[in-house]
Design brief:
- By secondary structure, the protein is mainly α.
- Helices cover 75% and strands 0% of the residues.
- The chain has helices at 2-20, 26-33, 37-48, 52-70, 75-82, 87-98, 102-108.
- The chain is elongated, with a radius of gyration of 15 Å.
- The model has no long low-confidence stretch (mean pLDDT 91).
Length: 114
């Protein structure tokens, strides 16, 4: 029974990051899942071996990859749409994570390897 409850919480976390990646906060996610912020942090660390902030960053960058691949929208528009404070910060994070620029990604059309 405990395993089933944890599995449900993981699914809720996954859905939240898929749907609300641009503006999700630890407080809002904890509220959605029905945990305290500290319990949520422990659950994320235990299951994903990372932090809330890193999961949110990955979700934003994955959403950006989809937009870069499937739209002609500007990098600045995509950065804003997925929740980055500036296009420059978005481009720096993208390059750090995927070892290529957004332009290189668009040209190759390949999913970056992490």
């Amino acid at each position: 029974m405990i395993y089933r409850r944890k599995k449900k919480k993981y699914l809720m976390i996954e859905r939240a990051f898929l749907s609300y990646y641009a503006d999700i906060t630890p407080e809002s996610l904890a509220d959605m899942v029905g945990l305290s912020i500290r319990q949520l942090q422990r659950l994320i660390k235990e299951h994903y071996h990372t932090t809330f902030q890193e999961l949110r960053m990955r979700a934003k960058l994955n959403a950006a990859c989809i937009l870069l691949r499937n739209t002609a929208d500007s990098t600045a528009f995509i950065a804003e749409k997925v929740g980055f404070s500036s296009a420059e910060y978005f481009c720096n994070c993208f390059k750090k994570e995927f070892h290529m620029t957004t332009s290189q990604y668009r040209r190759t059309g390949k999913t970056p390897i992490r």
